[in-house]
What does this fold into?
Amino acid sequence: MKNNVITAHRNFLKDDLRLQIDFQQTDQNQGIAPPPVQKPPTQGQTIITLPGRESLDSFGGTDLVKAMLNRQSHRSFKPVPLSQDELGFLLWMSQGIRSQLQPGFALRNVPSAGCRHAFESYLAVSDVEGLYPGIYRYLPLDHALVLEYAPEHLAERLTQATLNQNFIASAPVCFVWTALPYRMEWRYDLAAHRTILIDAGHMCQNLYLACEAIGAGTCAIAAYHQQLFDQLLRVDGEEEFTIYLAPVGKV
It folds into this structure.
């Protein structure tokens, strides 16, 4: 039985699944409109505009080869805040939108299968200049943040949701990405889920490299308590759920 389960999971990693799919029956090919590029803010939510693209020039000059050679996972961070300029830069590099091609499609700074970009970027903020501690979400079309809510005992809840990995809550901010599978399923049906995981790697690697430009570090985290994290973000766990996270701080 165990070998059958392992085989099934290994087959998920292969591209053979597309041979079983009639792509003419996907929602895209049935003429259904694509899902939106980002979840819109709800009425009454606080929106914080991040520093514009002109501020990106201040982070120029980082040598790409040096950044790649220095790239490593960090689990210890200095007790200093990040600036909104720095946070905006990291968000722009990891999920920023260069241009919107048409409704439902946008070019970003990371590749995605079929230009589908199935993620939302949340932030568990504890120490960013000018931001109240809480759960925020990035609005890439606006290059802005929306305050989702300010939970009590955020550090404790973050530690519990990450299986007592205490260093995560010590970071000034923790990037948390959720997947909205239908954004990819709309085009690829059952082949969507493998590509979502591939895309997650693209996104987090950009964050690693961008951290090098601001003297910060991060650590990709895939071990967490699914239900606790979904509850912390207030997502439904079905149409949207936590898939990856990375604490960020100065090193």
